[in-house]
Amino acid sequence: MLKHLIFSQNKVVKGNSLPTGKGTHFIFASAITPNETKALVKKYNLDLDILKEFTKYTYSRRVSIDPFQMVYVDEYFKDNKVVRVNNLLIVKQNIFFLISEKNCYDPFFNLIFIELKNEKKKRRIHYILYHFLEYSIEENYTILKNIDKKISNIHEDLINQKIISPKELLRLKRELFSINNTIWKFTQLIFTLKTEVGGTRADKEDRFILDDIYHSLQHQIEIIMSLREMLTDLLSLHLSNISNSLNKVMKTLTAITVIIAVPALLASIFDTSFVYIPLINLSYGFFIFVAAIATFIGFMYIFFKRKQWL
To answer: The domain that contains 283 carries what CATH number?
Structure first.
């Protein structure tokens, strides 16, 4: 799917195909077909190999400076899952290309159209590029908030001594590692954008936007570090709960063993082959023996129950 914005100081025009008019262009392509890819390459002399291969990248990286081309691996939250999406950003003369492998940036396209239409000062390629980066990192807060919620739920379960799977803790840790890696690549990108993009250097206003993005990234890194510490504490609490459960099991088994051992001992004594055994000649001797065993079992049960071994 191809969309475009053509803008100048006088007007902003939106369309659903390749642009034909004059002016500065913002071309937005998501989940494009092979025919649309060929049309882009033919009209703007783009690198066909990069357009075919950018979806296979596993991390963000700058492809070239002149023209500025960067593969940007983004993450967003959808259906209670973190989804990765590869994007290709190209700044060539007075054209900015945003090519995404999935349909997930339509809200951004509509937002940019409204902002450019309402404010003439924002009608610059660099503003769209920086605003896209700012828009994408805001999604990190949603992802981190979801991870924090999951950590809180696990914490509640551990406090209530419920059984949890260590795989969930490890999965959350991997998610944090992935986000942290993306943010780290992003901080390196900020430096590149501050130097030169599309043949022009960032001006004072651009640098202010980039600094704001950089501070947001630093804040997200601090949140990730805090969440990592929480996960480490949860893992320790999980191991502590396992140890406590094992101790409880051992106490229960010990209590049962003691309760059964004495009656078994008494029964084995009365089963010995002596001529004279106490109570053997009494008509009610058996009942005395059973009552003694029952009394002992009851006493030991109450004792271990008060000790919370049972």
So the answer is: 1.20.58
